Amino acid sequence: MARGIEIRDAHFPGRAPIDAYGNGGFRFADMSHRGSILCLPSGIHGWDRQDAVGLTAQDLERVIAEADQIEVLLVGTGTEIRPLPEELRAVLRAHHIRSDPMSTGAAVRTFNVMLAESRAVAAALIAV
């Protein structure tokens, strides 16, 4: 039986700063990922979002699943800052997560600083 290419969910099992972003992806931990990512206490996961318009709690279910380890969620909304829908902010608040939308570049820089300070931070980063 011939085996084809096995496609798995992208996941880096650990915390790592983001070394670079742009050209539709991110570099971290001597690796690169094309597309958006979620940076969580459990690791860095590929995220199937191409823009921040209409984000829902379902889009951030991995974040919510780790809510007990997250105080702040930085949301990199692409090249432009987009506010999060009130319904999503309410769900995050109910899980004691403060959300902060900003451009992806600003979110990467802020995430790296907060990670270096060992803060309980997560990031949802739309690729630019």
Report on the structure:
The chain has a single domain, classed as MTH938-like (Hypothetical Protein Mth938, Chain: A). The protein has helices at 61-65, 86-94, 104-116, and strands at 11-12, 18-22, 25-28, 31-34, 36-40, 43-47, 72-76, 98-102, 121-125. Helices cover 21% and strands 31% of the residues. The protein is of the alpha+beta class and 128 residues long. It has a six-stranded mixed beta sheet with strand order 1-6-5-9-7-8, with helices on both faces. A three-stranded antiparallel beta sheet has the order 2-3-4. The chain contains three helices and nine strands, in the order ββββββαβαβαβ. This is NADH dehydrogenase [ubiquinone] 1 alpha subcomplex assembly factor 3. It holds the Pfam family DUF498.
> Percent of residues in helical segments?
10-25%
Low-pLDDT ranges: none
Examine the coordinates and then state which fold CATH places here, giving the name of the CATH topology: Hypothetical Protein Mth938, Chain: A
CATH architecture: 3-Layer(aba) Sandwich
Q: What top-tier CATH class fits best?
A: Alpha Beta
Distance between the termini: 40 Å
Average pLDDT for all residues: 93
| Beta-strand content | 25-35%
SS-based class? alpha+beta
How many domains comprise the coordinates? 1
Largest sheet: 6 strands, mixed
Name given to the CATH homologous superfamily: MTH938-like
Radius of gyration: 14 Å
